[in-house]
Every structure is written in structure tokens, then in C-alpha cells.
Write a structure and sequence with these properties.
The chain has 7 helices and 4 strands; from the N terminus they run βββαααααααβ. The chain is mainly alpha-helical.
Length: 248
């Protein structure tokens, strides 16, 4: 898989990815948007609670998000022109490696097959940022990432409020903290154009399903693992609100 030239040496593979033939196997249609008319349909009863189509799709979406945002975080860390850009890159790397580890932990327990590549649309996000340099890279990368995080935030809240599966709930909790942290550090760059971001979050063009769907892994292929980065010493827990003054 080639996402960008900056990803060499930052992902490694390990362990065989087991493919299932049940209804929990990699779905034909997954991506940024829901593709089932009834995502609340229970597809399995597990010892952690019922698993719905929405639950399964959420696990796959979190995994796919890391497969493109991790490389983009590397670019920001290496090529960002300001300390704030480099900080954002570090938070993306640490946050998504943590989410990736949890996805890979719970997916086999729930019988969910994870993708090894992001969707074509997500791959294009990385290619677009990779084609820029200097200040233009900074602004392009921040806009792409801020829009993506703003779009997924309501989905995280919906899953956290509705899921009856304790493993999915655990992933939703961690994802909520991570996404909020990433939104915060991206905004700290001073490069977020809120009017543009809000417009893109709510009026994105409808793309064909194949552009939004991570391709299924090849049978027997090792699972791609996002490399942990404890060396960056970054805390991606949900940030505390900034003090707004004392109350008399």
C-alpha cells in the first residue's frame, strides 16, 4: 500500500488477518456515510452485548481513519512550518496508533474484519496534502483534517449514545476523547477557516460508494499496524475547557 512517500518505515505488519464467512465479515459497503437503510439491525449477539450494523461500521471507520490520518500526521510532524503544526502531527500519530490498537484488539472478539487501506477518497486526502509544501501544506492539511474530524464527531456521539455493546462503547469513549483532542490542536494552529470548514462539513458532494469504501484486505494478508509512538510523550485525552474567568 502506498499512501504517501512519507509513510515508509512507520507502519509494520504482524499476525494473520482472519477472514470470516459470517454476516460479520467485511461488509460490501462501508465508508464515511452510512450505507445501510437499517444500521440498528442486530447482526450478532456477543457476550459483550448485541452488535448492530452501525456498531460494526463504526469500528471499521475508526480503523480506516487511522490508516490515512496517521500518514498525514507524519507529514505534519516532519514538514509543518510551525511548532503548532508539528504538535498537531504528534497528536495525530499518538491518537490514531492508540485507536488502531483498540480496533485490532476488539475486532477479532466481535468477528469484524478490518481494512488494510483507507478508502479511495481518504487516499486522495493524503495525496492532496502531500502535493503541497510550506505554508500551503500547513493550511491544506489543517483544513482536510479539521473537516474530517468535524464530520465524524456526530457519529461518535450517536454510537456512544445508542450502542449496547461494551467493547464498541469503549472504542467510542476513546474515539471521542481523541477526536476532541485533535480538533483542539488543529484549531491551535490558527489556520482553521471556520466558515469554509462548516460549509464543507455540511455540504460535501455525494460520491459513489466505491470512493467511500475501504477495500477489503486480501485473504491471508498480514494486518497493517500503526506504529506506537510513546517517544512523542503526547497526551490525547479529552482536553479540559480553557478557563473563562472566575465567577463572583
Amino acid at each position: 500500500m502506498r499512501i504517501s512517500r512519507s509513510t515508509a518505515g512507520t507502519v509494520f505488519v504482524g499476525g494473520a488477518l482472519v477472514l470470516t464467512l459470517s454476516a460479520l465479515a467485511y461488509p460490501a459497503m462501508l465508508g464515511v456515510e452510512n450505507t445501510s437503510s437499517d444500521t440498528s439491525r442486530i447482526i450478532a449477539n456477543t457476550r459483550w452485548g448485541p452488535l448492530t450494523e452501525a456498531d460494526r461500521d463504526f469500528v471499521v471507520k475508526v480503523r480506516a481513519a487511522g490508516l490515512w490520518e496517521y500518514p498525514l500526521g507524519e507529514m505534519a510532524l516532519e514538514r509543518g512550518t510551525t511548532p503548532a503544526m508539528k504538535e498537531a502531527g504528534a497528536h495525530l500519530l499518538v491518537g490514531h496508533s492508540g485507536l488502531d490498537a483498540l480496533c485490532r484488539k476488539i475486532a477479532p472478539e466481535l468477528g469484524i474484519t478490518l481494512p488494510n487501506q483507507p478508502s479511495p477518497q481518504q487516499q486522495q486526502f493524503v495525496a492532496t496534502a502531500d502535493s503541497k509544501s510550506g505554508k500551503e501544506f500547513d493550511s491544506t492539511a489543517v483544513t482536510i483534517m479539521r473537516v474530517a474530524h468535524g464530520r465524524i464527531f456526530p457519529t461518535v456521539a450517536s454510537i456512544r449514545a445508542s450502542t449496547q455493546n461494551t467493547l464498541v462503547r469503549q472504542l467510542a469513549d476513546l474515539t471521542n476523547d481523541t477526536v476532541l483532542d485533535h480538533i483542539t490542536v488543529l484549531e491551535k494552529t490558527g489556520l482553521v477557516n471556520y466558515e469554509q470548514v462548516n460549509f464543507q462539513q455540511t455540504s460535501s458532494p455525494k460520491l459513489p460508494d466505491e470512493q467511500l469504501t475501504p477495500p477489503p484486505p486480501q485473504p491471508g494478508s498480514p494486518i497493517v499496524v500503526l506504529k506506537p509512538r510513546p517517544d512523542l510523550n503526547v497526551n490525547t485525552a479529552s482536553p479540559q475547557p480553557s478557563p473563562s474567568g472566575t465567577v463572583g
